[in-house]
Specification:
The structure holds 3 protein chains of 3 kinds. By secondary structure, chain A is α/β, with parallel strands linked by helices. Chain A is built from 12 helices and 14 strands. The longest helix of chain A is centred in the middle third of the chain and has 17 residues. Chain A is elongated. The two termini of chain B are 25 Å apart. In chain B, helix 3 crosses helix 7, helix 6 packs antiparallel against helix 7 and helix 7 crosses helix 9. Chain B has 11 helices and no strands. Chain B has one domain. Chain B is mainly alpha-helical. In chain B, 78% of the residues lie in helices and 0% in strands. The longest helix of chain C has 27 residues. Classes of the chains: A alpha/beta, B mainly alpha, C mainly alpha. Chains in contact: A-B, A-C.
């Protein structure tokens, strides 16, 4: 396993070149969550979550707003105390455990700082908090994001605040690095900077990265694994490539499409439907099996893979067992909680 | 507290186990440190650093004391100049003025509470524990109070040396600070300033644990409690011959400094313990 | 990268095309996994997987501690693979399209022949029909 990547990775022993299954047996998982529940008053924010995250990969935590992403991430690093269940991170219980927490960094969306602090104060403390802090990287990112070290955190724009979080998250080189929605106020150029620097640094210094987002397509290709959270429960946890196979697009004359859906028993799995004249296009939230593929070819229907965003939208509109097709445009963009 | 100690022990063993599997991604040139980053106490000092990182925070207490002292003195000087009063009388009046006590206690509170309230998630995000953040804040309150008390004692010493700023006025060497040795004045000042911050931290903890509503309820509750206690004390005073509470008050007279400082001291100790117990189970979404 | 195919496959195809085009000669080094990952903004594991499919097909090979190199005969293998796929990937669609627009076999062959001639003459743009 080690030999597989050394020639390209250089300084990256222990990382597999071909990584498919969410958990590789050789390495202890970076995160182990069992039976996790968290309720706030009457709201069940997290429901019976079981999760194992493989180390040294980039994990995407996706789901609609209000699905419980932030609560889950906050629970991983002990900031939210579980109602029940256990959370282990980097080999130990994370809650109030300095031996574990000192190897983690958690960057919140809209992270707030004391009003009188300046950018360089925040970076100075982060530098002292992490033995592997890379000051050069921090400086470079500060320039890339055009952040003034003397600026007061109180006066930062949303985007600048997000940038500051990204700098702290990347330069700390923490073994477990968590970004919660690192996009607020960032323009596409700045997001590009983030993706490039993340990949660059991850390639040289592999670590476990978790990024939560509802902008799935933008980071889909960066991910090893995808975790889909829907209404406080994990509904999908797979390698990014396999996750993409969880849905497919079918297009053709209306009744041919209907015939195929009936024949494959997936009428109830249609998450999206659009029609033009006698032609219709549906997204089916089910893996494309050989039988369906053959049937489609026979009927002359077009079968296409969909983007990860579409899979997320499809899984989100249909409950795991469910059968309630909804003719929504782009479900993932709708935002609000159901 | 014993449960907290147990958590620490687990921490150490967990750390050793995890340390063994920490080979990944450690480029030799960058890491250099070899072992685990210093956990536990070192991180409380890191939290203290976080509070101290903005230098202006530390100057607030001493600064406010100097400004308020100067204002008190100016008021005394104006009274002295504009009336026929003797310096001794004016000075005597000034020694009952507690403005410097109040400002020295209250001004740093806002900074401390916002540093804890606004800084908690940022500090936790950098891998500190609640314990680090909390006791770091207590240490910071102690350091800040010590500085403010020192500034105050320096002013008292100056006042004594200059025989009341060459006017015979004692605006800072007030009765509250005992008018005794400089050390006792320093200790009284330290206790007052620190105690005020500890009580404020209790309410910060309540806010972080239970939100704005919880804070409001706890403040109203405290106010009601104080009124009740005052009522009992006043009724005890009015019927001072009978036992019960008045016996307590008599006991208080046996204590150095009377009952009040000891009652306040107890309140501070309870706040210290209560604040931590409330804060350590707070969740930050 | 587009969504129509797995990304690792697109990575492999990109390198194959570069080898066929002569960008990487035989026994020359190809970019590292990390370089490829950064270039395409994809996960290094995905890039590695793309490279590994080429290793499995004998197109690339690993020199321990140095990197990935184009195998001798790689062009040959790729050419053969592409020739095998030619009918599937290009001729079949052409036939389908020709039928849809009412071209006879002669029509289609004439057009193809003319294009091939133009390319051979060095100016593929000139003849448009």
């Amino acid at each position: 396993m080690t030999a597989a990547t050394t020639p390209w990775g250089g300084a990256s022993p222990g990382r597999e070149a071909v990584a498919e299954a969410p958990a590789s047996p050789e390495e202890a998982p970076a995160v182990v969550v069992r039976g996790l529940n968290r309720r706030f008053g009457r709201v069940e924010a997290l429901r019976d979550i079981h999760l194992e995250l493989a180390p040294n990969r980039i994990h995407g935590l996706v789901g609609r707003n209000g699905a419980g992403k932030t609560t889950l991430l906050s629970t991983l690093v002990g900031q939210v105390i579980p109602s029940s269940g256990s959370v282990e991170v980097l080999g130990g219980r994370s809650l109030e455990n300095p031996a574990v927490l000192s190897r983690t960094v958690y960057v919140r969306d809209h992270q707030c700082y004391p009003d009188d602090m300046r950018v360089h104060h925040v970076l100075g403390i982060a530098r002292r908090a992490y033995p592997r802090w890379d000051e050069g990287l921090a400086r470079r990112l500060t320039e890339d994001f055009r952040l003034s070290p003397r600026a007061r955190t109180k006066k930062l724009s949303t985007g600048q605040r997000t940038s500051l979080g990204i700098i702290v998250g990347l330069a700390s080189r923490a073994e477990l690095t968590i970004f919660d929605e690192p996009y607020s106020g960032l323009d596409p150029v700045a997001r590009g900077v983030f993706y490039d620097r993340l990949l660059e640094d991850f390639a040289e210094h592999p670590r476990t990265v978790i990024i939560s987002t509802h902008l799935v397509d933008e980071i889909a290709d960066l991910l090893n694994d995808v975790i889909l959270l829907d209404d406080g429960a994990v509904t999908l946890h797979e390698s990014q490539e396999r996750a993409r196979d969880r849905a497919y697009r079918l297009a053709g004359p209306v009744h041919d499409v209907e015939r195929l859906l009936e024949r494959t028993g997936s009428t109830g799995r249609v998450s999206r439907r659009q029609s033009v004249g006698s032609m219709t296009m549906v997204v089916v939230a089910a893996p494309l099996d050989a039988e369906a593929e053959a049937a489609a070819r026979e009927l002359g229907l077009e079968v296409e893979p969909v983007s990860l965003q579409e899979v997320v939208a499809a899984m989100g509109t249909l409950s795991p067992l469910g059968s309630s097709p909804r003719d929504t445009g782009d479900a993932a963009q709708e935002g609000a909680q159901r | 507290m014993s449960q907290a100690a147990a958590e620490d022990n687990r921490t150490v063993t967990g750390g050793a186990g995890a340390g063994g599997s920490r080979r990944t991604g450690e480029a030799p040139g960058v890491a250099g440190t070899g072992g685990l980053p210093d956990a536990g106490r070192g991180r409380t000092m890191l939290a203290l650093r976080y509070y101290l990182t903005v230098p202006s925070r530390l100057y607030t207490g001493p600064g406010i004391v100097v400004v308020v002292a100067a204002l008190s003195l100016a008021v005394g000087a104006v009274i002295l100049g504009s009336s026929q009063a003797e310096a001794a009388d004016v000075s005597n009046g000034l020694t009952y003025n507690q403005t410097v006590v109040w400002w020295g206690s209250i001004a740093p509170l806002a900074i401390l509470c916002s540093a804890v309230g606004q800084g908690t998630t940022a500090m936790l995000g950098l891998g500190m524990t609640r314990r680090n953040v909390w006791w770091g804040a207590i240490l910071y309150a102690l350091v800040g109070s010590a500085l403010t008390a020192t500034a105050l004692v320096v002013l008292i010493a100056l006042e004594r040396l200059t025989h009341g700023w060459f006017m015979g006025l004692s605006a800072i060497d007030i009765i509250y600070f005992g008018r005794g040795s400089l050390l006792s004045a320093w200790l009284i000042a330290l206790g007052t300033f620190f105690g005020a911050q500890v009580i404020a931290l209790l309410f910060t903890a309540i806010y972080l644990r239970a939100g704005a509503m919880g804070l409001t309820l706890s403040i109203v509750g405290t106010a009601v409690l104080l009124v009740v206690v005052m009522g009992i004390l006043i009724s005890a005073f009015s019927r001072s011959e009978q036992g019960g509470v008045s016996a307590l008050l008599t006991l208080g007279e046996g204590l150095p400094g009377g009952l009040l400082p000891w009652a306040l001291g107890l309140a501070v100790l309870l706040s210290l313990a209560g604040g931590w117990l409330i804060y350590r189970r707070a969740s930050f979404r | 990268m587009d969504d129509s195919k797995p990304i690792f496959q697109q990575v492999a195809e990109r390198i194959s095309s570069d080898i066929l085009a002569g960008t990487y000669g035989e026994e020359e080094q190809v970019p590292s996994t990390n370089e490829i990952a950064l270039f395409h903004r994809i996960n290094p594991a995905t890039a590695g997987k793309g490279i590994n499919t080429l290793v499995a097909r004998g197109i690339l090979y690993k020199r321990r501690g140095i990197g990935m190199f184009v195998a001798t005969g790689a062009r040959e293998i790729l050419l053969r693979e592409r020739q095998d796929q030619f009918v599937n990937d290009y001729v079949d669609p052409l036939v389908t399209e020709a039928r849809a627009i009412g071209f006879t076999a002669e029509d289609a062959l004439r057009v193809v022949g003319r294009r091939l001639g133009a390319v051979a003459a060095g100016d593929p743009r000139k003849e448009q029909s």
